[in-house]
Design brief:
heterodimer, A: alpha+beta, Glutaredoxin, five-stranded mixed beta sheet, 3 helices, 5 strands, 23% strand, globular, B: mainly alpha, three-stranded antiparallel beta sheet, 5 helices, 8% strand
């Protein structure tokens, strides 16, 4: 999977599935970066073919609606949408 | 590397002005956060360029127009989301209450059915037999405009009167 890594403080394993065009995804990335957290993200809309299908299947497992942003925390908890308070509570 | 053209700032401005005028003339409101709103319009232009249709920027488009008809902006979910959450899914269109600052814009749940449910709905559509009305019909008592939806619109798109001038017609 082609993930972009943004360096920061280790606040658990953070994986963000996002769209390059989505306003709430942009706000989510900005918040995570404001919190200076280390995380990985992927813009699913920029993927093609098999690569996209594979990532969509992963998102579907966490969030059957396949909506964005989907933030997976420590491979166990997810936050769907720009839920400022929840994100801050989880990694703030 | 992107395989689509980024629209110029001028193209985004022109598109923003055009949609804003259209929206306001039919009683809809765009988010007053111009920077956020223009980013979304830029994204819709990117989607037009890469998919050939202005898919919702906050949803994953398939690239197949027929599968994505429901999410071409303004999407099928805008009006129900304006009723229930005072904003569309992207936060591009907002209600009068958000525009005036009475309510705060927040990220809302996705209303579009999941991929598996959409598949099922597609199958059901082919065998569906009409059994009466799926939605109530509302009539504008001022201009006679009729619409079938869960609630009347905030403002009549034809004559601009407020929702309290509507009666349940059917």
């Amino acid at each position: 999977m082609i993930m972009q890594h943004i360096e920061g403080q280790n606040k658990g394993k953070l994986v963000l599935f996002a769209l390059s065009t989505c306003g709430w995804c942009k706000k989510t990335r900005a918040l995570i970066e404001d919190l200076n957290a280390d995380y990985e993200y992927v813009y699913v809309d920029l993927l093609k073919g098999k690569e996209r299908d594979e990532v969509v299947e992963i998102v579907k497992k966490w969030n059957p609606q396949v909506s964005f942003p989907t933030l997976v925390i420590n491979d166990e908890k997810i936050i769907v949408g720009f839920k400022e308070d929840e994100i801050m509570e989880a990694i703030g | 590397m992107n395989d689509f053209d980024e629209p110029t700032a001028n193209e985004v401005d022109l598109y923003y002005q055009k949609v804003k005028e259209e929206a306001e003339s039919s009683g809809y409101h765009l988010n007053s956060d111009v920077e956020f709103t223009k980013e979304l319009f830029k994204s819709i232009l990117i989607n037009k360029s890469r998919y050939g249709y202005g898919a919702c920027p906050c949803r994953l488009a398939s690239g197949n127009r027929e599968d994505d008809l429901d999410l071409i902006c303004p999407c099928d979910y805008r009006d129900p989301d304006l009723i229930d959450y005072n904003a569309c899914y992207c936060g591009l269109y907002v209600s009068g209450e958000i525009l005036s600052g009475e309510k705060k814009l927040i990220s809302i749940p996705e209303r579009r059915p999941s991929p598996s449910v959409r598949e099922k709905m597609k199958e059901d559509m082919t065998v569906k037999i009409s059994t009466g009305l799926s939605k109530p019909v509302w009539r504008c008592k001022v201009c006679g405009y009729l619409c079938a939806r869960d609630k009347p619109p905030e403002v009549c798109p034809i004559c601009k009167v407020s929702s309290d001038r509507f009666e349940k017609f059917m």
